Amino acid sequence: MAGSITLTMIKPLAVQKGFTGPILAKIAEGGFKIIAMKYTRLSVNQARKFYEVHKDRPFYDSLVNSMTSGPIVAAILEKENAVQAWRDYIGATNPANAAPGTIRALYGTSLEANAVHGSDSDENAIIEGDFFFSKMERF
Ligand code: ADP
Ligand code: MG
Question: What are the structural domain ranges in the chain?
Answer without folding.
Answer: 5-137
